[in-house]
Write a structure and sequence with these properties.
There is one protein chain. The chain is α+β, with helices and mostly antiparallel strands and 120 residues long. The chain has one domain. The chain has 3 helices and 5 strands; from the N terminus they run βαβαβββα. The strands form 2 sheets. It has a 3-stranded antiparallel β-sheet with strand order 3-4-5. A two-stranded antiparallel sheet has the order 1-2. Strand 4 and strand 5 form a beta hairpin.
């Protein structure tokens, strides 16, 4: 694993980080934004999507995992309406996760007519 305090270059980060005004931020800072946003997601109004991603790094902010940890799975993300900050279900409070469980069979954005955006 990598050190989360290591500085991450904007070009190497998922799309959401490219919109940040600062030229660089640490992975820890980037993840903290998502953990804070997670506390404000209302399951009644949340937007939900899923993508296939590394299960050990659903945001894709760390280097490739060693072969023994290589595993891709369906990872779910939620955000507040109008927000550009997608939060992995694993970072949501348990009550919010439970309330959003109904989306486990939802189509991905690529499978719907009106939504083509993926979280990052």
């Amino acid at each position: 694993m990598t050190n989360e305090n290591e500085t991450a270059n904007k070009a190497d980060m998922p799309h959401s980080v490219k919109n940040v005004a600062a030229a660089q931020m640490t992975v820890e800072e980037w993840l903290a934004i998502r953990k804070e946003a997670a506390l404000h997601i209302d399951p009644e109004t949340a937007e939900v999507t899923w993508i296939y991603a590394q299960t050990v790094d659903p945001y894709g902010v760390h280097p490739e995992p060693p072969d023994e940890y290589w595993q891709v799975g369906r990872e779910y993300f939620a955000r507040s309406p109008g927000s550009d900050v997608w939060v992995w279900f694993g970072d949501l409070p348990k009550a919010t996760q439970d309330a959003l469980e109904k989306y486990s069979s939802s189509p991905s954005p690529a499978e719907t007519e009106n939504e083509t955006e993926i979280p990052f």
